[in-house]
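About this split. The held-out portion is used to measure sequence recovery: a designer receives only the structure tokens and must propose an amino acid at every position. Recovery is the fraction of positions where the proposal matches the reference. Here is one held-out target exactly as it appears in the evaluation file.
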């Protein structure tokens, strides 16, 4: 990834969508058919509330790659509500990854999905936690497998989720080196009033074998049928 693309991604984390639009346009001057950059540009337009520009940009992606899932989802959301309602509003992005002691956690997933799946993820994208066989799987909104929370964090979260706590989870980073998510406690059940969800210094443990991942994916899919 070149420096300009990296800057475009990093500026999005600050919530400076105007600058993100500018940087992505600069990338497109030399790489006009770069679908990842076009998708990032559409994402920025959406955060600015510019649905028309966002839709037109997603349509450019589909002319290049008719099956591009990010563009397909983006246009579907815009046609449905005019905005990408599963993405974080622009005024919250600058604060979305701020950590609160005991209530939030930045977690690197284990046993992540193949690169072709990871490349479709976007910073700030909402993802879903799915409990299965004492593991917590992370899926996108189409229930496609992304990865697994480390065992120690997953088992602790299961206890809290089953007890009534609620959480929201976003993609913080996604690249060929792995996927990082940001998990935030949004509701604490009365029974856990004095129990923080996350403990300082938690260590990650080994995840699933490839065979168990395949089995888990099949199990999660079968539960949804």
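Reference sequence for scoring:
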């Amino acid at each position: 990834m070149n420096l300009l693309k990296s800057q475009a991604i990093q500026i999005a984390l600050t919530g400076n969508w105007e600058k993100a639009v500018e940087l992505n346009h600069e990338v497109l001057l030399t790489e006009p058919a770069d679908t990842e950059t076009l998708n990032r540009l559409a994402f920025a337009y959406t955060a600015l509330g510019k649905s028309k520009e966002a839709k037109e940009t997603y349509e450019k992606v589909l002319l290049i790659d008719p099956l591009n899932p990010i563009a397909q989802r983006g246009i579907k959301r815009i046609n449905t509500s005019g905005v990408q309602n599963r993405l974080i509003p622009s005024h919250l992005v600058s604060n979305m990854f701020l950590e609160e002691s005991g209530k939030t956690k930045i977690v690197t997933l284990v046993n992540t999905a193949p690169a072709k799946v990871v490349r479709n993820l976007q910073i700030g994208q909402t993802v879903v936690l799915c409990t299965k066989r004492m593991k917590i799987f992370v899926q996108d909104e189409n229930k496609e497998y992304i990865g697994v929370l480390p065992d120690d964090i997953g088992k602790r979260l299961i206890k809290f989720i089953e007890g009534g706590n609620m959480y929201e989870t976003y993609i913080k980073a996604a690249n060929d080196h792995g996927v990082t998510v940001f998990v935030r406690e949004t509701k604490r059940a009365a029974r856990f009033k004095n129990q923080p969800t996350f403990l300082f210094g938690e260590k990650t443990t080994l995840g699933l074998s490839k065979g168990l991942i395949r089995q888990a994916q099949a199990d999660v899919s079968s539960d949804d049928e």
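Annotator remark: The beta strands are 104-108, 126-132, 135-139, 145-148, 166-175, 178-187.
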